[in-house]
Amino acid sequence: MRGRGATLCLLAALGAVICAVPASALSCRYPEAFYGADPDTQTKDDYVRRFAMAHRDLAQGTFLVWGVFEKVKSGPFTHEVEADARFARWVDPGTAADEVKADVTYTYRRAIRFSGVRLNNGSAEPFSTRQTIINLPVREQFIGSLPAFDEPVFGMMRSLGQGDWVEIRADLCDAYFPLSETMYQKVRACLADPDCTIAD
């Protein structure tokens, strides 16, 4: 996603809106209930820190993660798009018929590995998976704008209770976005110190 200029927002499973563009270019607002005064002025790093401080409100089995995704070369899924099926429409009851087509979504499934850290009771702990499922409904106009692999990202995962299999699910768009280098270095430092706190 970095450098592509894509304006991607998502409505995540918990109802929190995540935007993958600078605050000055936002087409949606960071949820004020989570992040306090004037979310339009928040930077990505402010957003991550405030999200970290609010993470105790996340549903059981859902957690925030920092790290990188890598393509998995073997397994029941390939690293390429395997599913390309129309699966849902996000439209208001009053939406005109000629606007419906743009809201048709496609489901993509990819097998990837995630390595990084996750928040646990306010502290970061090492976390990795052998294989991770992405189940990602994406609006047609955003196809081709999915995040790149092997770059620092921040996001939200939900455990499926199947060992190291984790589902990342977002409605409309990506459930994660690139981190700044400063924030990523801070997170990497926590790998050597599981008691460190990201949300300082």
Question: What's the helix and strand layout?
Answer:
Layout: E1 9-12, E2 17-19, H1 32-35, H2 44-53, E3 62-71, E4 85-89, H3 97-100, E5 104-120, E6 123-128, E7 132-139, E8 153-162, E9 165-171, E10 176-178, H4 181-190
Parallel strand pairs: 7-9
Antiparallel strand pairs: 1-2, 1-9, 3-5, 3-8, 4-5, 5-6, 5-7, 8-9, 8-10
Task: Write up this protein.
It comes from Sulfitobacter mediterraneus. A hairpin with a 4-residue loop joins β1 and β2. The protein has a domain at 59-190: OB fold (Dihydrolipoamide Acetyltransferase, E2P) (Beta Barrel). It has helices at residues 32-35, 44-53, 97-100, 181-190; strands spanning 9-12, 17-19, 62-71, 85-89, 104-120, 123-128, 132-139, 153-162, 165-171, 176-178. Strands 3-5-7-9-8 form a five-stranded mixed beta barrel. The radius of gyration is 17 Å and the shape is globular. It is mainly β. It contains four helices and ten strands.
